[in-house]
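Entry 12.
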Amino acid sequence: MKINNFLFIIYFQLAISFAADFYGSKPFYQIMETNYTTAWTPAEIDPVNRDYIVILDGSNSSYVSIHENDIFTLTVHNSTALTSGQGTYGDALRSMFQLQDLYIEELGTESLSNRYTLRPVLGSYYAIDANADVNSSTASGLVVRDIKSTYVTDQSIVAYLIFEVIHSGNTTVLKASSRYTFNSTSSEFEIDNSWSSNHWLHINSDNLELTTNESDATDLMLADASDLINILNVPSSEFNAAGIDWQTNTFAAFPTNPNTGEEATGGVETSQLYDQVINQTDTYYHQQFYHSATASQAAADFLDVIETTLLSEGESLRYDKSLYLAIRENMLSRKTVAVDEVNCVIDTPLVAHVYFTNAKDDNGEYHPFMVVATHNGSGGPNFLIDVARPPGDGSSGSYDQQSVTRNAVLAPVLCKIPLKDYGLVNNVTDNDMSPYGSLAEDAGVSQDQYNVYNYAALAANGIAIDGVKIYPAMNNTLVFAQMNAEITSTGIHVGRGMGLHYHADGHAYSGNGINLYNLHDYPGHSHPPIIGFSLDGLALYGRHESSYSNMDGYNVALDEFGSHDHDDYGHHYHAFSETVTNSWQNNEYTFEEHFFLVGAYKGSINNIPGFQESNTAQLVNQELGKYVGASGTYVSVQSHVGIPKDFSLQNNYPNPFNPTTSLRYDLPENSMVNVTIYDMLGRQIKTLVNQDQIAGYKSVVWDATNDYGKPVSAGIYLYQIRVGNYIQTKKMVLLK
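Predicted 3D structure (tokens):
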């Protein structure tokens, strides 16, 4: 069978021209694989504490890198990978090292030594060391070792080298002048007196070596890595509007368990999100746990039930089911690429589970949630060392007497995103924040001065797509975190508990390609990517870019909450930038604020149970446990699922897919049903259904084969349902 191609394509275009484009930004492992197209010209610097460098030989023909598949191995590569614009972001990041002064964590009591550890950007808790046993006097090569993470003592050798940058005429060399080794008794690093100071870096065509002959030391170019990827946050920039210098306070100790007094930095494999959460949740929800095709199907099936249940009550999901399923897949696909939280492990998931619940309150009203069980880690480098003025430890005394937080710890979070459409507010104070507190109330601001910035949560008001919490743009002193130099170039920082959270949009600040979302997310799409959710249930999208002015909603103005509504997207937030004026220490500053979430909620929050709760203790809370799926709280809603009111063809899931996808459709009455797959020329590929069916919620799976059982090629396909006079067509993408 072949239908009229021209009419078919016209019909198809009309049917899908306003379909919303739901997709998430690239996970960091995909950013690493993304082409880096800038042709880099190395520029030599005389580096000092905290400078980022690329180590090249004097002819600029080779550079030092960590190995693509093993962060503990150092390699030498041809520099054309960086200078030709034909490498990847992974090539660039693996080439970047930071010089950290020997006393960087103790500058509250010590002075700069001008002697440095060399830290890979992708492993801030690691450092370069000699390939030799402890108490060795010499070594022939170099390795990378863990020197600070939770797992540091799992190694047989815990040590690092201290380098000096030595200039002689036009020559620059790196001298490995001393070595420090870990004393397991004192839990401190001590100088290794056996080490000979006569070691210099030597690069040959294949590998990196140490030489004991100064004349064999390689003349190096120590190039400015911030020219390669700009990760700096300098005084008087938009992320340091008050022009604050890097504070030399001593680094704060890691948080401790109040019951044991030990550091609360247990490894990610012992996270509560695994054994504890699994033991405390109802077994019914376990079908949706982890990341697998089976779990994805179970989640999709239960979301169908949630939608049907809401419709039977005269209510609805806030967004199309395909949005939630697409973001669930994106979140669960994310994994750790950089060791930049003390207890993380490379290649482990950032988000353990994303599952849907649908509990009733005491009045019999359904409150469905998407529960995100996340470790609260970004997966990439956070650059916390570079925060100029991090939060103090909260001890008595002035800020300059306190230690400061420049380390991150993964910690379990159970974040609930409301699925039901609870409506919107017109004015800031239409939402009642009094049960939860607000920045304005906490600061004693009068109600007539409440606004979208200060009538905001005291802590998290959203969750990013990488599973990291999002906080309001202002801090608890009603100062924008940007102005106060509290954040890194990615818009992130840690508080006193050392948990990561975003305050601002790093992409808008730097556009360097390695942020939560980036310009390379946009091609091939009709709308900016989804980058998170507010706790009111509204989705958060990336900013509209002038270079993509043809995208859906580009010309639809945002309201004061940073939200708008257009096409089939429903009401949602966008990251955006706006000129603001803010005061700090009796000085006023005007700058461009790069918002994720301004602070106040546009979505109505007044009827959301357990609003803003995000800890695992919810599971043992008698009132709130059911909303996160606590054990024994699941009640079947199948008896409430009736017959659909209208014919409908749902978005297939997953999409894109390989090799199978599920097509769902609703039949309000017994009917003769035809479901057929076509290619983009209108040629019939496969008939999936052609029979009488009883009314109900239906699904059929296509396995990417044609009517003859042979696999079809990758590409865009159309699926169409015909039921009497009802005809609907949608598109799907098969990947190979």
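Annotation: The chain has three domains: 41-227, 238-628, 643-734. The first strand starts at residue 35 and ends at 36.
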